[in-house]
């Protein structure tokens, strides 16, 4: 079933001279994990703002083309309805905070959608465990370390169990193992609850391991979209757009150019290790 | 030789009682290009802020170039150690780039002619253009805002430059630009550089020395290749070596070294083995 459809979307912020989105087309099936990459200023954040109604309801500008969530045109759908489907983790966690304690921050959204006390308590335990934030509940969100703030921001959106979870650079401030944990958690949510995920990241190591599809956005347009494996096999196109694949993929890309890498490019350590050990054993 | 920064038994508690640093000892020397890494909440930002006196020790001492941070004046400190905030947007508050960079020099009482020289110098060093000077910082893209934040620190000509998460939110290309620029400041102008980061490939590529923190303490301190060749130890602080280093470590039985830091290095090793394995 289709969850997102974007048709020739153009958007110009009223203070901007140029259009930021210059004709975007996108289709996403429910239950899929889409990774979006692109250089700074490409329009990634702007694009996801069109999915939960921030654009055009909160920002001023000119919009052309159409955006559908579950077949509903976002411009003809009340924001409350959109936000009940779509959860967005902002790239700047502080932009999300409204409460005086972490606990209130997490509970507020759940109360707003009318969950009962028992359900709220259960979900609170669940998200604080997943994000390792249980010890922070009493603290004001602005008296946390950078990574702790980001964990709270992620927890508050997960607690709402949105059908479409959008994460805008969600792990940029997390420690390496925390980063892995978050990606494992969302991959599991996809598997177990069938939620749909869109994640924007500059660091592709983890995205490459979990995304079904990848899209490259540059200068307001989707330049290339493909299944993850095929996406990264187009090594030269990515490099030309200043996108750096995971390190093991880069390594194989370099070797392939020099004729030393047969077969497709690995996306993770395990694939790289297997391919290398196989060719070394064969050589023996 | 005396260390440029000498941290002795430093402890720090926030007003709400959170004990963020526990008896930290650290010597930062001339010639250091140091990465401070470790778990979220381990005290990296707190320690950085103690190094230039934004935060004063609850216990222990921090000596900078002989000055004790708990008694030195702000002017004495900012000329020696500059700190660029984790989110530079939290440090930018003037309505144009010129005033933003001029703020520090004006604040320490320099004459306007000297202020102007410093702004122009800092602008040139970070690669901002004259036309940027009149722009509101928030209308600049992230990469340039980061440079404005660094320029406003440079205008005070500190010996030590600390940048808290320089590459967060930057695409790879911008990340390399920023890091190459810090390397240039280090190599050409002799600045001591400290970066705080979770970006391990960046650490591997640029830092000479790595200090690892966990729960308010320093648990490892050594040359980059050395620190990254101890993955079990690192995991105590929720850190993993870069992916390429871990690939090498998974191939130890084939004679790969445990301390490969860069993609190109790994590619060269693989190639050699493929060519020379009979
Ligand atoms: N509120 C706004 N008003 C005017 N222009 C804006 C506004 N927000 C963003 N822009 C501009 O739109 C363009 C795209 O910005 P956007 O934040 O969507 O990029 P991005 O791909 O998310 O970049 P990054 O990787 O830096 O987060 C940029 O040129 C930016 O300056
Ligand atoms: N203003 C504050 N008031 C109270 N506690 C604070 C404050 N700022 C930070 N802390 C706490 O101090 C500890 C150390 O925080 P610090 O910001 O130094 O961590 P960090 O290593 O920089 O983490 P990160 O990688 O997430 O940025 C954490 O437990 C944090 O919650
Ligand atoms: Mg963005
Ligand atoms: Mg920090």
Largest interface: A-B, 49 and 49 residues
* Low-confidence runs of chain A: none
Uncertain segments of chain B: none
Please report the number of helical segments of chain B: 11
Helix content of chain A: 40-55%
End-to-end distance of chain B, in Å? 51 Å
Distance between the termini of chain A: 51 Å
Structural class of chain B: alpha/beta
Strand line-up in the sheet with most strands of chain A: 6-7-8-3-9-10
Q: What fraction of the residues of chain A are assigned to beta strands by DSSP?
A: 15-25%
Per CATH, which architecture of the largest domain in chain A? Answer: 3-Layer(aba) Sandwich
- Mean pLDDT of chain A, to the nearest integer, reads 94
* % residues in beta strands of chain B: 15-25%
Order of helices and strands of chain B: EEEHEEHEHHHEHEHEEHHHH
Helical segment count of chain A: 12
The number of domains of chain A is 2
Key terms:
heterodimer; A: 284 residues; alpha/beta; Rossmann fold; 2 domains; four-stranded antiparallel β-sheet; B: 278 residues; six-stranded mixed β-sheet; 11 helices; binds adenosine-5'-triphosphate; binds magnesium ion
What does this structure look like?
The complex is a heterodimer of chains A (about 280) and B (about 280). With about 280 residues, chain A is of the alpha/beta class. Chain A folds into two domains: about 1-245, Rossmann fold; about 245-284, no CATH class. Chain A has twelve helices and ten strands. Chain A has helices spanning about 45-50, 55-60, 80-85, 100-110, 115-130, 145-160, 175-195, 205-210, 230-235, 235-240, 245-255, 270-284; strands spanning about 1-15, 20-30, 35, 60-70, 70-75, 85-90, 165-170, 195-200, 215-220, 220-225. In chain A, the strands form two sheets. Chain A has a six-stranded mixed beta sheet with strand order 6-7-8-3-9-10. In chain A, helix 4 (about 100-110) packs parallel to helix 6 (about 145-160). Chain B has a domain at about 240-275. Chain B has eleven helices and ten strands. Chain B has helices at about 45-50, 75-80, 95-105, 110-125, 140-155, 170-190, 200-205, 225-230, 230-235, 245-250, 265-275, and strands at about 5-15, 20-30, 35-40, 60-65, 65-70, 80-85, 160-165, 190-195, 210-215, 215-225. In chain B, the strands form two sheets. Chain B has a six-stranded mixed beta sheet, sandwiched between helices. In chain B, strands 2-1-4-5 form a four-stranded antiparallel beta sheet, with helices on one face. Classes of the chains: A alpha/beta (about 280), B alpha/beta (about 280). At the A-B interface, helix 6, helix 7, helix 11 and helix 12 of A face helix 6, helix 10 and helix 11 of B.
């Amino acid at each position: 079933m289709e969850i997102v459809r974007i048709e020739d979307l153009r958007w110009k912020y009223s203070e901007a001279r140029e259009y930021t989105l210059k004709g975007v087309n996108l289709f996403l099936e429910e239950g899929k994990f889409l990774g979006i990459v692109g250089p700074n200023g490409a329009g990634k954040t702007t694009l996801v703002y069109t999915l939960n109604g921030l654009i055009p309801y909160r920002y001023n500008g000119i919009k052309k083309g159409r955006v559908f969530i579950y077949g509903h045109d976002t411009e003809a759908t009340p924001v409350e309805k959109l936000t009940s489907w779509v959860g967005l983790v902002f790239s700047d966690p502080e932009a999300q905070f409204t409460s005086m304690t972490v606990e209130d921050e997490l509970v507020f959204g759940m109360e707003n959608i009318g969950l009962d006390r028992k359900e709220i308590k259960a979900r609170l335990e669940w998200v604080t465990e997943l994000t390792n934030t249980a010890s922070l509940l009493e603290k004001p969100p602005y008296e946390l370390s950078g990574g702790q703030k980001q964990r709270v921001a992620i927890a508050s959106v997960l607690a709402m169990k949105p059908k479409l979870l959008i994460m805008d650079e969600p792990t940029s401030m997390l420690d390496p193992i925390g980063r892995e944990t978050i990606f494992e958690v969302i991959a599991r949510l996809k598997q177990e609850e069938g939620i749909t995920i869109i994640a924007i990241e500059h660091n592709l190591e983890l995205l490459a391991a979990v995304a079904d599809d990848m899209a490259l956005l540059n200068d307001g347009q989707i330049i290339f979209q493909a299944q993850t494996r095929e996406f990264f096999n187009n090594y030269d196109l990515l490099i030309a757009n200043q996108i750096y694949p995971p390190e093991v993929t880069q390594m194989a890309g370099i070797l392939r150019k020099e004729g030393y890498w047969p077969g497709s490019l690995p996306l993770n350590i395990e694939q790289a290790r297997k391919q290398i050990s196989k060719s070394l054993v064969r050589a023996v | 030789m005396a260390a440029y920064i000498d941290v002795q038994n430093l402890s720090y508690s926030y007003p709400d009682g959170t004990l963020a640093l526990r008896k930290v000892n650290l010597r930062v020397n001339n010639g250091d290009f140091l990465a401070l890494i470790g778990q979220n909440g381990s005290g990296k930002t707190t320690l950085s802020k103690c190094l230039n006196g934004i935060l004063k020790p609850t216990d222990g001492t921090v000596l900078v170039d002989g000055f004790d941070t708990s008694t030195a004046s702000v002017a004495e400190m900012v000329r020696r150690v500059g700190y660029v905030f984790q989110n530079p947007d939290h440090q930018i508050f003037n309505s144009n780039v010129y005033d933003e960079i001029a703020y520090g020099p004006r604040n320490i009482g320099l004459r306007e002619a000297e202020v102007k020289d410093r702004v122009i110098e800092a602008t040139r060093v970070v690669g901002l253009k004259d036309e940027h000077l009149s722009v509101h910082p928030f209308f600049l893209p992230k990469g340039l805002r980061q440079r404005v934040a660094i320029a406003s620190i440079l205008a005070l000509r500190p010996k030590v430059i600390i940048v808290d998460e320089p590459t967060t939110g930057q695409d790879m290309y911008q990340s390399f630009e920023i890091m190459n620029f810090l390397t240039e400041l280090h190599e050409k102008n002799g600045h001591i550089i400290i970066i705080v980061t979770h970006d391990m490939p960046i650490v591997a590529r640029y830092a000479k020395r790595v200090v690892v923190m966990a729960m308010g303490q320093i648990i490892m301190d050594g040359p980059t290749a050395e620190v990254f060749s101890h993955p079990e130890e690192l995991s105590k602080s929720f850190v993993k070596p870069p992916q390429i280093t871990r690939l090498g470590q998974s191939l130890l039985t084939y004679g790969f070294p445990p301390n490969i830091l860069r993609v190109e290095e790994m590619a060269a090793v693989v190639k050699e083995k493929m060519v020379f394995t009979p």
